[in-house]
Design brief:
The chain has 314 residues and is mainly beta. The chain has one helix and 24 strands. A hairpin with a 2-residue loop joins strand 10 and strand 11. Keywords: Lectin.
Length: 314
């Protein structure tokens, strides 16, 4: 993309808000595009040993006076005889009837990963991969445009994603892959071993940020002989995304090109019988055929190009 050139308009469901690392609490931020069914907010952190309570509020605005409506108030409390969680809604500065969950899946001094999944009629919450609660909306989800985090909590990362389109067939929650926290990003080129190859149901997750002056992004899968039977390449020069066959044949993928400078992205590859399914920013984009024997013989995932990586899972 030439200097000064603007990215092509993208559908809202293709745009992901960048993650936030180690925000200072209290923390309030705008949710780009607001909330809608199909979105997911992830919260990584640690509960302090002396924690009394914290809250995560999905707000309708961020005014101080009058206080904004809070569509969803998620409030773990540790200081009571029986720790519990309260969910509620604040409407016109008045709290509605509390919903209480006596079991608390969080512990003082322990790390956690919370997933907030937003459906058509309710929010579901998982803690460390286990279902915790569901809360029916009392205000329209479309009014929510602000996230607020308050109280006794050490936040390591906040992620704004779309629900994994591959989480189907009885799987209540997509697997919450955490962001990397030990360093701002992984070094690129980056390599990950696949000691047992790929098998049906396995998901490769790649999250990152495109650099200011990008050239390309390449994700390749290699076997023991260093052959490369599967390559996915984004070319910034001609704004194309394509599968590259071992003999060099290119198969273009019909989708909006979303790899633009300083833009956050998520790539998902789902291994299935006879090939790999692709999703970008939570939107399914079809599949490419690969024989099962070839998938089983893969031993390395390699990523190169003009990106910072925040998460690589395989």
């Amino acid at each position: 993309m030439s200097p000064g050139e603007k990215p092509d308009p993208l559908p809202d469901n293709f745009i992901l808000q960048p993650p936030v690392f180690h925000p200072v609490v209290p923390y309030v931020t705008t949710i780009f595009g607001g909330l809608r069914a199909g979105k997911m907010v992830t919260l990584q952190g640690v509960v302090p040993l002396d924690a009394r309570r914290f809250q995560v509020d999905f707000q309708c605005g961020c005014s101080v006076h009058p206080r904004p409506d809070i569509a969803i108030h998620f409030n773990p409390r540790f200081h009571t005889t029986k720790p519990h969680v309260i969910c509620n809604t604040l409407y016109l500065e008045r709290w509605q009837a509390e919903a209480r969950w006596p079991r608390l899946g969080l512990q003082r001094g322990a790390s956690f990963l919370i997933l907030f999944l937003f459906g058509n009629e309710e929010m579901k919450v998982s803690v460390n991969g286990q279902h915790f609660l569901h809360y029916r909306y009392r205000l329209p989800l479309s009014r929510v445009d602000t996230l607020g985090i308050f109280g006794d909590i050490l936040v390591e990362a906040v992620g704004f994603l779309n629900i994994n389109p591959f989480a189907e067939g009885g799987i209540e929650y997509p697997v919450g892959y955490p962001f990397l926290l030990k360093s701002p990003s992984l070094e690129v080129p980056c390599s990950r071993a696949l000691p047992k190859g790929l098998w049906p149901g396995q998901v490769i997750v790649l999250r990152g940020l495109v650099l200011p002056e990008p050239k390309d992004l390449t994700l390749s899968l290699r076997d023991q002989a260093a052959h490369v039977p599967v390559t996915l390449r984004a070319s910034f020069a001609d704004r194309t995304l394509a599968w590259i066959a071992p003999w060099g044949c290119k198969k273009l993928i019909s989708a909006p090109f979303l790899f633009y400078p300083r833009r956050f992205f998520e790539v998902l590859l789902l291994c299935q019988e006879g090939g790999l399914k692709l999703a970008l920013n939570g939107q399914g984009l079809g599949a490419t055929g690969v024989h099962r024997q070839v998938l089983e013989q893969l031993r390395e995932l390699r990523i190169s190009g003009s990106v910072q990586l925040y998460c690589v899972h395989c």
